[in-house]
Design a protein that fits this description.
It is a single chain. The protein has 204 residues and is α/β, with parallel strands linked by helices. The chain is built from 6 helices and 9 strands. It has one domain: Vaccinia Virus protein VP39 (Rossmann fold). It is 25% helix and 27% strand. The radius of gyration is 16 Å and the shape is globular. The relative contact order is 0.16.
């Protein structure tokens, strides 16, 4: 996702073609390196955070249907597939980033994934899922302050499974309210970021 100036100084490695590189850090594609375009401010969620996140998600990820909003490089949605998710839907607004995601799915021979080139809020407002998502990743461009709008639209959609898991990555001081049936499961900070995992409680 694109968020200039909000990530730590560490930068992705540039390839000979001017593309940045994402490394899958676990699962069946562990160690695979994938290019993504040099879109201003677009950076993947860092390796250490991803490792922590997917350790948290280990009980839920096998066979899960995942929604990667603001997919960017695909770091979260692709990592989920590598670690055994049943499906990943990657939502990405920027045309070049979306095209790169499609190419990377082909390179990985990822059979259970698709890229939708649209704005995440537009998708949430109009999507009608035939089957709800088990895991949702929310990691929007920090400067746009989209956490509350995203959570509100997600809450009133039919996209969430009863007992789904929702990951939210934000700046340390960024604030938002979650629905009453979401409970905070994990909460961690770095020097620049706060990342949280919520469980949607089973109701009824």
């Amino acid at each position: 996702m694109s968020r200039p100036g909000t990530k730590p100084a560490k930068s992705p490695t540039n390839s000979a073609k001017g593309l940045n590189q994402l490394r899958i850090i676990g699962g069946s594609w562990r160690g695979r390196k994938l290019g993504f375009p040099d879109v201003d401010g677009l950076r993947p969620t860092g390796d250490r955070i991803r490792e922590t996140l997917f350790n948290w998600l280990a009980p839920e990820i096998q066979g899960a249907r995942c929604l990667d909003l603001f997919a960017g490089s695909g770091a979260l949605g692709l990592e989920a597939l590598s670690r055994g998710a049943g499906e990943s839907v990657l939502i990405e607004k920027h045309p070049l980033a979306a095209q790169s995601l499609v190419k990377n799915l082909v390179l990985l021979n990822a059979q259970h994934a698709k890229v939708i080139n649209t704005d995440a809020l537009t998708y949430l407002a109009s999507a009608d899922a035939q089957r709800a998502f088990d895991v949702v990743f929310i990691d929007p461009p920090f400067q746009l302050n989209l956490w509350q709008k995203t959570i509100d639209l997600l809450t009133y959609s039919n996209l969430l499974a009863q007992d789904c898991t929702v990951y939210v990555e934000s700046g340390i001081k960024d604030d938002f309210q979650v629905p009453g049936d979401w409970s905070l499961h994990r909460d961690k900070t770095t020097a620049n970021l706060r990342y949280r995992l919520f469980y949607r409680n089973h109701v009824g």
